[in-house]
Structures are given as C-alpha cells and as structure tokens.
Amino acid sequence: MINSCRRIALLAAIPVIILPNLSLGQSSAPYTEGPVWEVQMIKAKYGLEDDYFKNLHATLKGPLDEAKKEKVILDYKILFGEAAFPQDYNVMILLEFANMAAFDNLRDKFDPIFIKAAGSVDQQTQIQVKRLDVREVLGEKIMREISLK
Q1: Using alpha carbons only, what angle is made at residue 72 by residues 66 and 74, rounded to the nearest 5 degrees?
Q2: Which residues contact 97 (CB under 8 A, 6 or more apart)?
Q3: What is the pLDDT of residues 42-52, one digit of tens each?
Q4: Spans of all domains in the chain
Q5: 31-44 and 91-97 as β-strands: parallel, antiparallel, unpaired?
C-alpha cells in the first residue's frame, strides 16, 4: 500500500518536474534580445549646431573612442536631423552596450576614461555647463535592440 502511494505521488510529480525544464531556454517571445542602447535626445540650439558638434568632438569623441577600445561600450552613433516641431530634438547620441549587465558599476568604468580625457570631475562639470549655451537635453532612454524571429 505504501509503495503504491509512493508510486502515485512520483507519477503525479513527473509533470511538475519535467514540464518546466522543457521550456528552459525556449521563450515564446516573437523576437530575440540583442545589445542595449542608451539613447540621449538633444536639442541643439538653432544656428549653434556646429558649435555643439565642435564641443562634442573636443570633449566626447576621445572618451567614447577609448571606451569602445576598452570594450566598455560596443559602439556609439550620433544622428542629426531636422526637428519635427519646435520642442523636438534634432540630435540623438546612442551608446551601444553588450547587455544590461554592462550597466553594473558603469561609472567605475567610465570615470577613469573621462578624467584622463577631460580632466577632473570639476573640469568636466565646467564643460557640461558650457554645453548648456548650445544645447538642451530633452530625454534619455535605455532600450534593447531586438531581432524578430
């Protein structure tokens, strides 16, 4: 009788044990996950776009190239276009990261790169304040790239 109860309990437990393991690694999502992008939406002030891009070249290009070389980021892109309406952005800065885990302790990875390229944190703050004259940050997002299955 006890053996029969054990057998029934074991048979009842098999679907509970096996079914979840069958679905491991098999997502029902219609896409696969790719790298993660940090997207900054910037409004460069009208007529000052070239000044803004000169500032980016002098202060951002070097550190981003170094971050890419050190594999802190995979890549970066800067997109420029017409604003659709007066409050719209006209510049997007995109930083590509391997995955969400890349954001763990990100400041510890980026600070030495920016200190080497742009000086102390106080010097970097002065650069950011100067940028206020030529641009406005409208927003920032973290988005994952996906590929449809």
Answers
A1: 90
A2: 35, 36, 37, 38, 73, 74, 103
A3: 999 999 999 99
A4: 31-148
A5: antiparallel
